[in-house]
Amino acid sequence: MTRITRRSALAALAGLALSGCASKPRVVLYCSQDREFALGILDDFSKESGLEVTPKYDTEAKKSVGNYVEIVAEKGRPRCDVFWNNEVLNTIRLHRLGLLEAYDSPKALPYPEWARGEGDAWHAFAGRARVLIVNTKLLAEDERPKGLLDLTQRRYKDRVVMAVPEFGTTATQAACLFEVLGTAKAKDFYQRLNANGVQLAPGNKQVAEWVGQGVTIRGKAAAVGVTDTDDAMSEVRAGRDVAVVFPDAGANEGRMGTLFIPNTVMIVKGCPNPDGARKLVDFLLSESVEARLAEGPSAQIPLNPQVKAELPPQIEAGRRAKPMLVDWAKAADLWDQSQEFLVKEFA
Question: What is the pLDDT, as a whole number, of residue 140?
Answer without folding.
Answer: 95
